[in-house]
User: Fold this.
Amino acid sequence: MLDAGDTAPEFTLPADGGQTIASADLAGKPYVVYFYPKDNTPGCTTEACDFRDSFARVTAAGATVLGVSKDSVKSHDNFKKKHELPFTLLSDGELTLHRAYGAWGMKKMYGREFEGTIRSTFLVGPDGKIAAAWPKVRVKGHVDAVLEALEAL
Assistant:
């Protein structure tokens, strides 16, 4: 998994609303990339709504939020509309960005091991380097930690 000081991976991915987002579009500005397992599941919805509810603070700091899962663009469109999410959701069906950040790997749930999305968040600074990383995120209180790091940039 990538850590603070590492160069953020370059990407071009399909996003909600039929758009395509590339890391080059974000050059010179801070952005938050958060990886989550699945649209419309309890933990993922809570995390997305926490980013939604703090969105004014994120934009005041000049940052962009990008939620990333392997769900389809259509699923993202429905999730975004249902929960009135004001930020972009990227579809990484090939898991390219997941793997580049180290957000895909072995997980354990109920004693069973399987491969899946490792809920994690990365704050990328205007210089294209990771300013802060949160591996294996616990949803409660997480967005506040991200905002503190963003406001300290």
Remarks:
- The first strand starts at residue 12 and ends at 14.
- The chain has a mean pLDDT of 95.
- The two ends are 22 Å apart (CA to CA).
- Strands lie at 12-14, 20-22, 31-35, 64-69, 88-91, 104-109, 112-117, 120-124, 130-134.
